[in-house]
Write a structure and sequence with these properties.
By secondary structure, this protein is mainly alpha-helical. It contains 20 helices and no strands. It is globular and about 65 Å long.
Length: about 500
């Protein structure tokens, strides 16, 4: 690290601490996906409860990310970072010891709250401790390590679930969080707050209310008649948030930041790209384990090419911005991701990994490698240093919201499509009325029926597997379309993106 940054020891220590802390939050966001079947069996969860195990974390993470970034800008980056780590570690320990679904969802929400203060301040620490010339490389290393741990989550989760049980994916975190807290207090130099202003509590409450209602409405679509009413209330709350941020003296989201075309375009691209990736990473393990017959460890290992490409490639991609314009790299990367997701729509219910799954997974990994570090660098280069925490919070909020909305919306779509495809397949196969009705009732609980699929035999198993594969193909095509939209957004909006090493001026006052 010292050789990479001209012997600059204190910033290198900051980089190590920031990478370690943020990696815990990122890996926890993906590691749980491989524990979902085990969780469902052990705690007797239905598909809605299973969604909330994931969504509770993503919801508080997304809703409070702006608060975390804003708190770091106003008070102490190191203090907010350590506080977030402590909350995250304690909540992880609690998640690993609960015995009821309600408590698990509650502590997952607390986990997300801790991560919301931890993640944006980790990137802001790098931004304020490295000079403009070294920032792209440092951000590339941070993004690479974050991508590596996020992508490694399925592999690690599969190994832990197979070796122990689902609790291990939570109990792994507390000792690592404690070590990161100690290193932060020991090695990260304290830094005075950039601003001494009150936190925007009304804005935070409006944002969290709007996002919570929006998430619940997306989960409820197709199941509950009040989904449209919830969606309307969500729009009202989010509109109120924007209106309040426009007129308050101390907004947590200064709307003037979006006057930068690069900042606005990069965040829109983030929403589209991570919607595509979040949906794919949620449904692909279900296909591999419940239809293709992979164990949790095998399903995790299937993501290894994605892990290696993201981890290694992202660490050098930031430097390439000195040679290639951001628009070219991000357009190509999102386009490749779209191609990879389209390839994942091709395999059948009896596919080989090397010929059917690997091409798509590797292409997605290559595409995201070209996107992760350059996208983060463009966002941070388009705002003044005094807004580092806020900018990081906005971009991370966009990424987490995208994953949250992808899971909520696509699960509703998948359940409706699965029920339709299953009904058609039952008629074509001429299954007995009793068995057919049982399968259709089970289709309303997508995950539950897929779990039961392992115990079915004969025509029933064929019907369930083929119906899910048909729906999975539709979902991957849907995700692919969003990735191509992200590529188009990059091309249209990032023609004059700020180059690394050029400090933005503060126009937010």
């Amino acid at each position: 690290a010292k050789r990479l940054f001209n012997g600059c020891v204190p910033p290198c220590r900051v980089l190590i601490v920031a990478v370690l802390g943020s990696s815990l939050a990122f890996v926890e966001g993906s590691i749980v996906n491989l524990a979902l079947p085990s969780l469902q069996t052990d705690l007797g969860l239905d598909s809605v409860a299973l969604q909330w195990i994931v969504n509770a974390y993503l919801l508080t993470l997304s809703a409070l990310m702006l608060v975390g970034g804003s708190a770091g800008d106003r008070y102490s980056l190191r203090g907010v970072f350590v506080g977030g780590l402590a909350i995250f570690g304690a909540a992880s320990a609690a998640c690993g010891m609960v015995s009821t679904p309600g408590l698990l969802v509650a502590f997952r929400a607390v986990q997300g709250a801790g991560a919301a203060f931890l993640v944006p301040t980790s990137l802001a620490l790098i931004n304020v401790h490295f000079n403009p010339e070294d920032r792209p490389r440092a951000i590339g290393l941070w993004a690479g390590a974050s991508a590596l741990t996020t992508a490694a989550g399925p592999l690690l989760g599969g190994a832990l679930v197979d070796a122990f049980n689902w609790r291990a994916v939570f109990l792994l975190i507390p000792p690592l969080a404690l070590a990161a807290c100690g290193l932060a207090l020991w090695r990260v130099p304290p830094r005075d707050a950039v601003r001494s202003q009150p936190l925007d509590v009304p804005g935070a409450l409006l944002l969290m209310t709007g996002l919570a209602l929006l998430t619940v409405s997306l989960v409820a679509f197709g199941e509950q008649s009040h989904a449209w009413a919830l969606l309307a209330f969500a729009v009202v709350a989010l509109t109120g948030f924007v209106a309040y941020e426009r007129r308050t003296a101390h907004p947590m989201l200064p709307l003037s930041l979006f006057g930068s075309g690069a900042f606005a375009g990069a965040n829109v691209m983030t929403l589209l790209l991570y919607f595509a990736l979040g949906g794919a990473l949620y449904f692909l393990p279900l296909n591999l384990m419940q239809v293709q017959g992979y164990t949790a460890l095998e399903a995790g290992a299937a993501f290894l090419p994605l892990t290696l490409l993201l981890g290694v490639g992202s660490m050098v991609a930031g430097d390439q911005l000195k040679r290639y314009p951001p628009r070219s790299m991000l357009t190509a990367g999102a386009g490749l991701t779209g191609v990879g997701l389209a390839l994942l729509a091709l395999p059948s219910d009896d596919s080989r990994y090397l010929t059917d799954w690997l091409p798509g997974i590797a292409t997605v990994g290559l595409g995201m490698t070209l996107c992760v570090a350059p996208l983060t660098t463009v966002v941070m280069a388009s705002v003044p240093e005094s807004r580092s925490g806020t900018a990081s919070g906005v971009n991370n909020t966009a990424a987490r919201l995208a994953g949250l909305f992808a899971i909520a919306a696509m699960t509703s779509l998948a359940t409706a499509a699965f029920t339709r495809e299953l009904s058609i397949a039952i008629d074509q196969q001429g299954l007995a009325d009793t068995l057919g009705q049982t399968l259709l009732e089970g289709a309303r609980e997508l995950g539950g029926l897929l779990n039961a699929n392992r115990e079915l035999g004969g025509s029933a198993r064929i019907v369930v597997s083929e119906s899910y594969v048909t729906v999975f193909r539709q979902l991957m095509a849907f995700c692919s379309a969003f990735a191509f939209l992200a590529a188009a957004t990059a091309w249209w909006t990032l023609g004059k993106a700020a180059r690394p090493g050029n400090d933005a001026t503060d126009t937010s006052q």
